[in-house]
Amino acid sequence: MTLINKKKLSGLYLGAISAAVLAFSACSEQPKTVQASSQAASQVSDELSKQAVYQTMKYVSDWQMSKFNKQTNLFEGYEEGAFMSADQADSHPQGWVYASFHVGMAKWAKLAAEQGDESYFKQLADIAKRNQYLFAPRIYNADDYAIGQLYLDLYDQYQDPSVLEPLKTIFDIILLSPSTTDLYFKKIKVDPKADQDNNESPFDEFEGRQFSIVPCKSRWCWADALFMGPPVWMHLAKVTGEQKYFDFANKEFWETANLLWDKEDHLFFRDTRFFERREANGEKIIWARGVGWVVAGLARILENVPAEHPQRADYEDIFKKVMARLVTAQQDDGLWRPSVLAPESQPYKETSGTALIAYAYASGINQGLLDKQTYLPTVQKAWSGLVNAVQPDGKLGWVQQIGHAPDTVSADDTQIYGVGGFLLTGVELYKLAN
Length: 434
Prior knowledge:
Blueprint: H1 6-25, H2 38-41, H3 50-65, E1 68-69, E2 74-75, H4 96-114, H5 119-130, H6 142-145, H7 148-158, H8 165-176, E3 203-206, E4 209-212, H9 225-228, H10 230-240, H11 243-260, E5 261-262, E6 267-268, H12 288-302, H13 312-326, H14 351-366, H15 372-388, H16 416-432
Antiparallel strand pairs: 1-2, 3-4, 5-6
Helix pairs in contact: 1-8, 3-16, 4-5, 4-7, 4-16, 5-7, 7-10, 10-11, 10-12, 12-13, 12-14, 14-15, 14-16
């Protein structure tokens, strides 16, 4: 593939965004309270009761939102362990980090609204309005349109069709001119002789932020994208009744899933770079958060695949297989380690991957896809581990930082995508609670 001129590439993205703007203008165990501090004792509990689960989610979400700057739509300056440089793509307020947080917050907001508290939905509506219902700049990259899920959730709540106009415009552009790149993860090399992982990559720049250029990311070539992308397309198909959105997502999902699926271990590689890599113990490198993105994405996808769809059984089959495999890798404290098949390689608690996996189990039970008697103990154990990672003030710790492979984690490390996963799990557990 030839390298596109940087200014031309920027113009392509920004032109598409401008087009969007114009279009828009037109069982329960006995209670076991976490004894982190007397302050948190009455707020945070791993007891599986509706009241305890609800209060725990509220405590964690309220702490997180107390760090939000309404002027910038950013979480700012509260934690070195959650630092995102202002000049990096990951700090974009409409990028994947924020989108994955809002996915969990919207689920929590719906539950809170059902209990008479609409304040969380109002917060999200204000955020979306300040976003002008737009996206981060790379229109073909699932990381940058994942926030469309927030706008869909707000549409479900308030039935305002205007919030969907930019989303529909962007997706229609993609449908008119879909990417035809292959799904093999290759960075554009500055030095052709350099190793892929240690080679400097060229960047495109938007709004003072640098975005790396990885050609295959114009499709869903990495595990995370199966959480960021297809649920948005399928949800849009459901609310608009336009089959074209579902058909695109269905086709692209299976292209990626069939490539990254490990038929031997019933797990998912993060991307094609990991096919031949091995841990020190000889096992494959299966990243907990990577496979967590996939199973959480599948749980969300299955909410939108019609029962009569010819591939419904295929979605259910692959979901059940990976969930049956993951249960064998859960550790005694309820958490999964960063490396699923080699927990000793990075022997740290890790809450973001655990939260996504736990959500998939709980959602699978609630959807009637997973046997409750078999898997509820797994969910309870994971929830206990997650709650024990909540610090006295409500901060969720032990979240592996932004990356693409198993890495070190500390008790003070946090990130908002971890909180998003925590809230997703809690909402599904609330449904299961006595």
